[in-house]
Amino acid sequence: MALLRKINQVLLFLLIVTLCVILYKKVHKRTVIKNEADVESETPEELEEEIPVVICAAAGRMGAAMAAINSIYSNTDANILFYVVGLRNTLSRIRKWIEHSKLREINFKIVEFNPTVLKGKIRPDASRPELLQPLNFVRFYLPLLIHQHEKVIYLDDDVIVQGDIQELYDTTLALGHAAAFSDDCDLPSTQDIHRLVGLQNTYMGYLDYRKKTIKDLGISPSTCSFNPGVIVANMTEWKHQRITKQLEKWMQKNVEENLYSSSLGGGVATSPMLIVFHGKYSTINPLWHIRHLVVCSGQHQMKTHNGL
Ligand SMILES: *[C@@H]1O[C@H](CO)[C@@H](O)[C@H](O)[C@H]1NC(C)=O
């Protein structure tokens, strides 16, 4: 009898141990599966890079800026963070524009640009006061606005993007290049347009080659210009090369010596960039123009109006 009870006890013990093992395995297996599932669902989000896009929203051009933002947002699945830049007195209006439209879903930050940094650096131009809009110079100060990102896209407010902005963001910047632009001569068809309406697509159109300071740069006047209305920039390299300081120097020199052709649209912001980035920029795939993925840009449109 005593022996039978002992055997029973042993059997019971074994049964409990087996149950424990089975239970342990089941729970363990479940957590392993769960972990794998977690990893799978988290990785794409972690890998999906945030694309920072800087756009200015000037008081009288709010609609244009919102159209630009909408064109980007509705043509991509990418995770975009819009930096919408304005002057202090328009910040609340920008917020209203965004939050009272379908753009309320976008991921955005409203950033104030303080125009006092421009003091003494802009030459008054009575004939084209709109070009002296302080926000035209925001592109000179990108590292002041963007802190968390190395690679950044800047777009003029009158750009309409018809392609996936991810492709533009994937533009390769050569080592040592702080920015990429699209060349004004890349497109055969634009040359026709240029001839047609007398548009400039060389440095001669932006710099006053009668001035010694400009001649001393040693840049051929027939060098193809680029369009700084669309910029893909590397903030690390930008800071390293002190691009902002260099641009400010060329603004200041213009105040002192009147170096830039005054007849053109966008010249005030374009000319310093043409000088500072001469021979030191990567190019944005011309397909972006050809396929009309970007319909740009202000200075061209303005000049077209003038020409016509
Ligand atoms: C930006 O520039 C830095 C310094 O030259 C370089 O190490 C880095 O790879 C560049 N990043 C991109 C995205 O081009």
TrEMBL record:
Q: Which Pfam families match?
A: Glyco_transf_8
From which residue to which does any coiled coil extend? Answer: none
Transmembrane stretches, by residue range? Answer: 6-24
Domain of life (superkingdom): Eukaryota
Q: Which family does it belong to?
A: Belongs to the glycosyltransferase 8 family.
Q: What is the lineage of its organism?
A: Eukaryota, Metazoa, Chordata, Craniata, Vertebrata
Where is this protein found? Membrane
UniProt entry tagged with the keyword Secreted: no
Q: What is this protein called?
A: Glycosyltransferase 8 domain-containing protein 2
Which organism does this sequence originate in? Propithecus coquereli (Coquerel's sifaka)
**Looking at the keywords, is Methyltransferase present?**
no
A Gene Ontology cellular component where this protein is annotated is:
membrane
Which GO molecular function, any one, fits this protein according to its record?
UDP-glycosyltransferase activity
| Keyword annotations from UniProtKB, A to Z | Glycoprotein, Glycosyltransferase, Membrane, Signal-anchor, Transferase, Transmembrane, Transmembrane helix
